Every structure is written in C-alpha cells, then in structure tokens.
Amino acid sequence: MAILVTGGTGYIGSHTVIELLNNGEEIVIVDNLVNSKKTNLDRIKKITNKMPKFYKVDILNEKELEKVFKENKIDKVIHFAGLKAVGESVKKPLLYYQNNVTGTITLLKVMEKYNCKNIVFSSSATVYGTKTIECKEEMGRGETTNPYGTAKAIVEKILEDIYKSDNTWNIAILRYFNPIGAHESGLIGEEPNGIPNNLMPYIQKVAAKELPELSVFGNDYDTIDGTGVRDYIHVVDLAKGHVKAIEKLNNSNGGIYTYNLGTGNGYSVLQIIKAFEKVNGIQIPYKIVERRPGDLAKYYANVSKAREELGWVATKNIEDMCKDTWRYVQNELNGK
Ligand code: NAD
Ligand code: UD1
Q: Domains along the chain?
C-alpha cells in the first residue's frame, strides 16, 4: 500500500517524503509544480536512493486525481498541497479558497470514493488567531485574520464534520508553528519566489547578498528585546512528526487527532539574526522599521500532546536551523 503525498515536491513535503522513504514507505506524489520544481525528485533520489512515483496533477482536477487512485493502491494521504502566501491571500481570496478549500474537498471526495479514509492535514498555528501566547490544542480555534488562515480553519472544520458523519475516518490535523531550516545534505530547502515575506527566507536572501538588508518589523513589543517572538521548528523535525502521525493512524480504527508541531520555545527576531550570524560567520545588516500590520508580539506551541500521544519531540535547535539553511543556500549559489 502507498501513501499519497500531495504537494510532495514542495518545501515541507519533500523533507517528509525523504523521512517516509527512509522509513520504508511506498510514496506517490501529486503536485502541480505551481510552487516547486520537479528537480526536487532527483534530489530526493540522491538522498534516499529511491525515486518516488510522481504525477504532475492539480488536486482541483478530480478526473486526474481519480486516475492516481486507480493506478495505485493508496490507503493514506498526507495533504500538503496548497498556496501559502498570507499577503497574496488577502489580495486574491477566491484563489486561496478555491485552491486550498475546494482543492481539499476534491481530494476528500476522491478519497471517499476509493475508500481511503486516512489523512494527515497540514494546518497552521495561524488557526489559534490572536487567542494566546502559549497555544494548546484544546483551546480550539481563534479568529483568523486573513483568507489563508481562514481556509486552514475551514478545512479543519470540514475534517471534523466528515469524522462526525463517518467515524471510520482516521484524521490527523497537524498545526505547524514556524518551519525553517533545510535538509542537512544541503540538497533540499526552501526556495522563496521573489521578495520573501517570512523571516528566514528574507535572512537567506540578505546573507546571499541578493537583498541589501532585513527590515525588522517593530522593536517595541512586550518581548525579551522588543522584537516579535515565534516558535521556529526545523523542517526535518517537522517531517519526522508526519512519520509519527502516520504511525498513529496505523494504530487507530478511526478518530480525529489534532497536534501542535513546534519546539515549545520562542525566539525573537534579533535572537534569530544573532544566531544566524554566529553559526555562519556572516553579518546580516538590518534596520528597525514599523510593526507589520496583523503581527502578534509572541506565541509558541505547547507540545505536550504531541510528545505524549505521538512520542515525538523536536530535537534540533536554532543553531542547527541557521546552519542548515545557510548550507543549502550556499549549495544553491554554487549551482550544486
Ligand atoms: P510549498 O509551497 O513549498 O509546498 C506546497 C506544494 O503544493 C507546492 O509544491 C505546490 O506546487 C503544491 N500545490 C499547490 N497547489 C496545488 C494544487 N492545486 N494541486 C497540486 N499541487 C499544488 O509550501 P510548504 O511550506 O511546503 O507548505 C506545505 C503545507 O504546509 C501547505 O499546506 C502550507 O499551507 C502548510 N503550512 C506551511 C507553513 C510554512 O511556514 N511553510 C506553516 C504552516 C502550514
Ligand atoms: C507567518 C504568517 C502565518 C503563517 C506563518 C508560517 C503573516 C502575517 N503570518 O507568520 O499565517 O502561518 O508565517 O510560518 O504573514 N519579520 C521581520 N522582518 C521580515 C519578516 C518577518 O521582522 O522581513 C518578523 C515578524 O514580524 C515576526 C517574525 O519575524 O515577528 C516571524 O515572521 P514570519 O516568518 O513572517 O512568520 P509569522 O509572522 O509567525
């Protein structure tokens, strides 16, 4: 039996495929390559010695998705496929609801038709809204502030309703905090298109001298040094969390489980800059500018549920995240 990984050539998907292949799983990837490159498949092969089966398919295309289910014995799905730029989602809400909500509904319909009722869904800490500093699963969802976040909350709700209607479904909702870093081989990492919105992709570009300096959005928050605090998690730790989620589904006859995937620690923007500079021996020029509208001062994950129920904890620290990111960027710059 195979695991279907939608969005499997993307940033988190490709790292997860590596961990799953290393764990002996059979993998089928579906991705329309809107935000990733097919060459990631060769890199996955280089790292694991295994080539996952690949279909260039849009999850909105029900017929083509059905073909994937017809041609493969799929019993589980990890659903990463989606658009993820928060700012773009504010400008193009219909695109985001269509791709991320309708796309998921299409996938779920096909899964149901082929009696595949095991799914791991990529959700986000953004569903907590402005609720709290320490996010706990049982607090439930808060008020989302942009279409990207609302689409995640809607999909979570859809999954809950599906489970209510048929409790033979096995569903794991994983709420990621701030994934950064890259595979330690330096072959796979995050490759932002254009000018990045997120912190680490921006630091990458400044380090590579593609952008002159980082703008730090506000230094007057109620945090350790006034800059925003987030729970950054190494993408390989995150990927391993998916292997644990699959194990959880394997041992369950039906259920819906929601887990935070973070480290439980918060770091400020200035702490990240300093860590990056220290481990990599390069300067990151920055200036303090206005706060970014919609930003929260500080939030991080409570990780006890994932630790207790999945037996998963993040093992990599901020230094690993900064070192692995820069190794990947340097390899890319050197054309490896
Ligand atoms: P990514 O853009 O690197 O990967 C997403 C992949 O999905 C891409 O390869 C893209 O080509 C593909 N895709 C998009 N729409 C598709 C469609 N209609 N049909 C088929 N393929 C499609 O993003 P990522 O960082 O790897 O994120 C993966 C998932 O995790 C997303 O759902 C994202 O919202 C979620 N997430 C990401 C973060 C983060 O900070 N990276 C945080 C929380 C949640
Ligand atoms: C962003 C998204 C969130 C998504 C998450 C995924 C927004 C408003 N929120 O959250 O929905 O789930 O990414 O990882 O986009 N910063 C700077 N300068 C920069 C970029 C960021 O100072 O150029 C600061 C921010 O103010 C924040 C921290 O760095 O304090 C992290 O920012 P970012 O990487 O964008 O992540 P989030 O804001 O947590």
A: 2-180+232-263 (3.40.50.720), 199-230+265-305+316-333 (3.90.25.10)
CA distance 45 to 24: 14
CB distance 223 to 232 below 8 Å? no
The structure's pTM equals 0.97
Residue 269 beta carbon below 6 angstroms from any ligand 2 atom: yes
Q: How far apart are CA 330 and CA 280, in angstroms?
A: 11
Distance (Å, rounded) from C-alpha 227 to C-alpha 220?
Answer: 7
Cα–ligand 1 centroid distance for 124 (angstroms): 11
pLDDT over 90 (residue 156): yes
The reply to whether ligand 2 has any atom less than 6 angstroms from the CB of 260 is: no
Q: Is 202 a catalytic residue?
A: no
Across 4-8, 67-71, 83-87, least confident range: 83-87
Cβ contact 300:223 at 8 Å:
no
Pairing of strands 214-217, 286-289: parallel
Helix (H) or strand (E) holding 120: strand 118-124
